[in-house]
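Sequence only, no structure available. Ideas?
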Amino acid sequence: MEKENCEFKRLSFLMLLMFLLFFASFLFLKATTRPKIVIVCAGDSLMRPMPLYLRRWLPGRYIAIKEWAQGGLSVATYFSFFSSHPAWSREKVDIILLQLGTNDVSLFLRNEEKEELFISHLRKIIKKLRKLKSNYFHQPRIIVATAPPFSGGKEEAQRNEILEARINPIIRQLAKKEKLFLLDHWPKFKDRPDLYDPDGVHLNGEGERVMARQWRRIVRKVWLASKVRRYQGILLEF
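Reply:
I predicted one. Tokens follow.
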């Protein structure tokens, strides 16, 4: 009788072990077949280093980072990205990090661009991006950022006045009106020459890390606020 009980316990243990292994395999297979969360870094040269940092800090097994940024682009010339990368419209994107405005300052200084035109171009960009398909949403979540201040260099005060009084207020207002998420870089980079390259426009290594951490925090906030059950626990890790 005792021998039969031992055999029964052994078989029960083996069956339980097999069930647990099967269940674990099922969960692993289910996790590996889920599409990754696709995050796009879009904008001008200040956005180009961001994928490098975000790929280091975000779990690559679950998140894919893409770069849609190019140096020298303004809200008007960003349309050149769409024409030179025709495959963009077939992409599935979940979160878009959009930062433009720095290169528009020169256009404002030369009276080649005014507020009405800036708003019109930025709205068109947002409209195009919203047409993209998403793995997890009806349309991609868009986070738009204000342009950081200039630090030193030629016409610093005049350029910052344009940003602070004309360009960034438009970005903030448009984010509210279009129901976009907003990342305000201005307070973080104001009076911080230690975060800039000598040209006073581009960020040095530490400045890039500061900006990337800003993006990382708001990506986490936006994703958790979206209440998508899949991957919620993963984003709590960073």
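Residues 52 and 85 are 21 Å apart (CA to CA).
Hope that gets you unstuck.
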